[in-house]
Design brief:
Aspartate Aminotransferase, domain 2; 416 residues; seven-stranded mixed β-sheet; globular; 14 strands; 17 helices; alpha/beta; Aspartate Aminotransferase, domain 1
Length: 416
Amino acid sequence: MDIFEKRVRNLGPLGQYGKQADGYFMFPKLEGEIGSRMVFRGKERLIWSLNNYLGLANHPEVRKADAEAAAKWGMATPMGARMMSGQTVYHEQLERELAAFVKKEAAYLFNFGYQGMISVIDSMVDRNDVIVYDSEAHACIIDGMRLHIGKRFVYPHNNMDGLRKGLERATKLVEETKGGILVITEGVYGMSGDLGKIKEIVEMKKEFNFRLLIDDAHGFGTMGPNGAGTDEFMGCQDGVDMYFGTFAKSMAGIGGFVASKESVIDYLKHNMRSQIFAKSLPMPMVMGALKRLDMIRTMPELREKLWTIVRALQSGLREAGFNIGNTQSPVTPVLLNGTIPEATNITVDMREKFNIFCSIVTYPVVPKDIIMLRLIPTAIHTLEDVKYTIEAFKEIRKKLDNGDYKNMAFADISKL
């Protein structure tokens, strides 16, 4: 069969709904200045779906730094991959400052966080090595492991008995292959908001020989007394061998980094194909990241504002009887019982009646007949935003319990 014909016949699990969902349920267009209120389909909405945790996306100091860097260097500088012609003292400065902030010897930059995690996994393990990973690992971790031609064992989410069994199996295997073991977990799980059991995993190093890599995309900048991450929050930074962070969440930018021992970073920078063969991170993004990092270090009030909103939102939802799971981070899931058609109608009702825009997650990301409303509080939300949202959610829950969304016809978004 012709490969084009094959792909058009089977559009994939999301693509099959593309035409009906385009522009509303998928690929929605949020317009205007990034903030707690933006325009969607011509109307202002209260936005709870942007990972702009510290409100840096439109902070005047950040905008000024970005604009000055763009005016001075443009978006093309530096030209070429870093190994060939794209190295600058500012890339090196950012790496030193990131490493010092997360208390590691050295760091290396990535153009994109997703690409970075894939690169780290691909470079760090070979056919003789074994990966042991959490079942709720992010897609970038899963895709990185697809490049691994050795064994990998999964353990149930945050189940330390399951991890122990995986480590026992891995240990027996590497005794034969003479390889090593890499354990991968997340700091903050981006859907549920709960934390990886990093401290307990570190404790297992007393029994097993392995290295620990954590993906802390949602924890960097938000967790810990200084915002240095989930391992700082748990007081176990020394036990984390490789720390991975992204600029796409708290820093409201593009890019990412990995931090570890200097010898490991030196190995990675000479062996990560995605960086050897990719253009260097543009200067405005590097200078912008330096400014954002400085603000995270020196402006704790940004994190304090974030957590004021987080505590108000999460305590208010719990007091109103909502199930928000085991979140210990800003990520706030609201779990309801309902079907995918009901979730579709809830989405439309939230956006059109209540002017609230948040992510809605259904099966297979969550179990069947569960609907997750995923809220991302930020430092630029207000307590009034929180109060309004909780009252709206109460009305939505009442309609759901009464069967209103089940009896409602499937929304025709072309008429909205």
